[in-house]
Amino acid sequence: MSKEHIAEAKNITKVYNPGMESEVRVLKDVDLSINKGDFVSILGPSGSGKTTLLDIIGCLLKPTTGKVVIDGIETNNLNDRELAKIRGEKIGFIFQQYNLISSSTALENVALTMRINGKSKNEAEERARKLLHMVGLGERLTHLPSQLSGGEQQRVAIARALANEPKIILGDEPTGNLDTKTGMKILNLLKDLNKEKGYTIILVTHDQRISGFANTVINIRDGEIIKIIKKRKGRGK
Ligand SMILES: Nc1ncnc2c1ncn2[C@@H]1O[C@H](COP(=O)(O)OP(=O)(O)O)[C@@H](O)[C@H]1O
Ligand SMILES: [Mg+2]
Which end of the chain is more exposed for a tag (fewer CB within 10 A), N or C? Predict the structure, then answer.
């Protein structure tokens, strides 16, 4: 396994409901290697297997066959607790629906993630404050999700994703619920995090425009990777 690869998926297949009448073969022999510091978009139409693939890379879902390596760790034989640890320490997730805790403030939402990983209340809140400032929400620390716009909620989710200094940020249609202008602002924020802080980012999307921000575009159709386009460094937006 190469040291430059922060995530690798080898010969991944995924079959839902195997052996049943409702059996669906979603991923067919998918192979990919993600370089450290890359900004990757996995582009494909609805139903092509993007969420399934992202959840497998993010150790939220086990593949039917194949191997997933995250930051040099083979995840196949890990139990649920060990997988949760990998997710907590190495992966930050951003979802289309933000998935914030509705009864908690922006600050609490971000701090909680660090509390779970063992940081003290003071430490967690101090870093949460810094992260929320960084994503432009320094004036919204005590707002509840319902008191924030969609774009602001997604910024909280990004701050939360960064809380434990992950190796990889995974986003599942992270601008899917936002208007175009707000979506572009979120993508620019992610682009800055990639360029300036070196975070590795993988976004899955059906939206061609989002791929314009990525340095590597992986095209997926019917559970198969059909094309990988690597742009020259420095040419991303
Ligand atoms: N838990 C599940 N059980 C059965 N089929 C599923 C499940 N999750 C997804 N599928 C099916 O797998 C296919 C790919 O789904 P998904 O990975 O969500 O694709 P995408 O994110 O590209 O829209 C779809 O046909 C979907 O209906
Ligand atoms: Mg999906």
Answer: C
> Which residue has a Cα nearest atom 25 of ligand 1?
47
pLDDT at 232: 72
Alpha carbon of 177 to ligand 2 centroid (Å) = 13
For residue range 175-213, list pLDDT tens digits in order. Answer: 999 999 999 999 999 999 999 999 999 999 999 988 899
| 158 and 133 Cβ atoms separated by less than 8 Å | no
- Rounded to an integer, the average pLDDT of 162-172 is 96
Cβ–ligand 1 distance for 77 under 6 Å, the answer: no
User: What would be the CATH architecture of the domain defined by 37-59+80-230?
Assistant: 3-Layer(aba) Sandwich (3.40)
What spacing in Å lies between the alpha carbon of 173 and ligand 1's midpoint? 14
Query: Relative to the CA of 223, which ligand 1 atom is closest?
Result: 14
Enumerate the domain spans of the chain. 37-59+80-230
- pTM beyond 0.85: yes
Nearest to 91 by CA among 59, 130, 120: 59
